[in-house]
Records
---
Amino acid sequence: MLILADISGYTAFLQSVANAHGEEMAALPEVPAYPLMTSLLDGIVARLEPWFRLSKFEGDAVFAYASDDTFPIRGDSVLECIRNCYADYRARRDKTENLMLCDCSACSRLHTLELKFVLHRGNYVVQSIAGHDELLGPDVTMAHLLLKNKVLNVIGPAPYALITRSATQYLGIPLEGSVPHAEHYDHYEPIETFIFTL
């Protein structure tokens, strides 16, 4: 199992904070927005564990994985794991927003940060590169490509989980309430997925 939890708007938020507080950032050891963002990422990892193992942070995304023999949850429990992670994220984000000391237009954009998930079942190889285990393979690439999708055109601006057919079939995830969707990328057959609004 390969899962990515991506904070949408993260890069724009940090850039706007940097633009608004550039001088402060140069003078102070820490700007409040950064540890608060760290808290959001920590919360995502805490909710995905113990079902998934953290592979790495990728800027505004958490990439985690699990082998078939260590992934015991199935069906509705998989959706519950994702929904619980999202609910905790929202609670942390809302609490964090109340703790922001600055109410400038940049910092006040914290509430616009949303969370989206991609869940895919596929093959991967764990390769040690520069002393760190990296996941490699076409399915790993596919999971990452799925972060750049056309889901917004289908459901509008809403938090969601995009789950591939291979994951829904293997895990027995019920499809009621989901929206069938296909994504197209170079070098891949159309990827059948299901959109679950959170």
---
Amino acid sequence: MALSMMTKSATIYHEIKKEIINGILKPGTHLIIKQIADKYGISDIPVREALKELSTDGLVETIPHVGSRVASISLKNIEDMLVMRECLEPFAAELAAKHADEKTIARLEKYTVDMEKAFETHDMTKYRDLNRAFHRLFVEASGNQLMTKTIVELMDSEKRMRMIFQLFPEILDLSNKEHGMMVRYLKEHNAKDLARVVYDHKKRVFDKMRNYLRQHFEGS
């Protein structure tokens, strides 16, 4: 019975988390336990446990005597997330230069080819998904599971914001050229230059995002 309850709670956790990250559940949306329980045909208990876990993740806010709602996205939180990624991903790249195997490098090369095709056909949704897969695989190649988990969670948080490539399509051409440079330095096991390219790549994109978000928040 306990295992069944835990499984239900985990299922609800992942379903609600996915809807929050993908923007289906907007910030401020009330999460009514009874409605969620009825939707999935379960009792209230696993829903409460799932919401508690989501609250720990910072995705849900629980207000006494009011209930739970999807957490808002603050400018401070976004900027903190961007700074963390700027610091962690170049370090992950350095480790990847030491640990990446030929199979991983071949997959990264395939992503760059597919991104180039998506760029040429102006398929921004496909480019976004391929770009995310490319950077996730790069991080996984570091061999550091804890750092990978942290960066992937930060990447998930970023998905709650508008797509960067739709906001700034002008960055696409240089972005994909840098992807090619990353793969080349990875092949050469050139940790120093690889970390530098990854940092410059992130910093340029994130600076654009910061400027946009500051204007957006100030104007809201």
---
Amino acid sequence: MVQLVAGTRAVECNLVVFDKNGTLVDQQSVLLELAMARRNAVSKNLSLKIAEHWEKAVGVDLKKEEIDNSGPLATLPRREELLVTATAFYLNDVPWRKAVSLASKAYDEADDSIKPPYGSILFDGIADMLQRLKRHGLKLAVASTDTHRRTEESFKALGIDSLFDAVVGGDDVTRGKPHVDMVLEACRIVGTGVGDTVVVGDSLSDIQMGLDAGAEACIGVLTGSGTKEELETLTDIIIDSAAELGISD
């Protein structure tokens, strides 16, 4: 096994499972591009009034360019967010079955309108860090609430796809974060035990996922939604950025 270094701590592991948005890439830029595309599609298929209600329902204020990092858009896999959207339509007098159909139609149109890397911007030093870990023999995986396809295409456009041994999207598992399914699926694909795995993420749901799965360690980063005070309630390994991760000689 390889000794992964995070701050003053060193942890032996074979696999590192990273969250994507807020950990490897800037969550704000990804969500704003996605939100704008989906709002435009909702407005086109229904009305401007319903599009404004949709923003509130999923935790978006596009005029202020603000995203609620604990809201549906930021935290839910697509299939669960669709139910929130359909409910917003239903509360605006759209019959339920039609609301479900229109929600899916609008999201399909929105997702097709944006291209890789879908607003993803790597945080400084992330590509170098991933290459460093890979050179020393660590297996790398990503566990994202985003879809498998969008995650893979984003990484390909960013030039880091070849560094990952496993990609697990929100549509690859039955239960999203903070349930353990994504970590277990990454371990299954790579062929390593969860006890030899480290989870790295910016949110409480990332850390809780790793803890409940039985990961060797969970590392919190301060580049996303979680504050130091929040992350300290679940882990004592917290660093400013995933770019700081290193290997012990």
---
Amino acid sequence: MGKIIAIDGPSGSGKSTISKKIAERLGFTYLDTGALYRSVALKLRNHSVPEDASDPLISDILKDTELFFSKGNLFLDGQEVKDEIRTPDIGHYSSVFSARKVVRDYLFDIQRNAARDNDLVAEGRDMTTVVFPDAYRKFFLTASDKERANRRFMQLKEKGMEITMEEAIRDVRERDTRDSQRDIAPLRKADDAILIDTDNLSIDETIEKILEHVT
């Protein structure tokens, strides 16, 4: 298994953007686990699977699902996925379905296998605690809910998606509750993870803080 830098944090903490840039700086492979969960949510919603669907129903759909990264691009059943997994609706269902053991079990091996032959920057909500507990370096990024909601609002606006600031704040808080209170792999800071508050830090400043502990 390659060298792994694991980065966890709540929605809007900046971990995706920062992880991708760190991977580029170090020449590592970037593992976007959020995209994996969003792709599963897209597949389930395309099959009209409700939030309270049974485990057997979800498992039956996932066993016929092909999900993999190739050259930095994510493919779902042979089709590259892009902005269709970045909508607020899919974000909601991604958070909901990520609490299901059957979904997490399906994605566990996909995530672990990504590090088999690669040095990896892996970001998500349980990278440091469950998927890669023995990672070379662990970080937990955070920021206030208002700052994270503002980042989410600006991100979606730039993509031409309709959302109000009130909706962004509500979405962030609801996802925080689901992620931190779920029974399976709840979002939490690993005891040996380095905490970085990104509220008053630029992307470049955050990257430099992380790299201080890596290189």
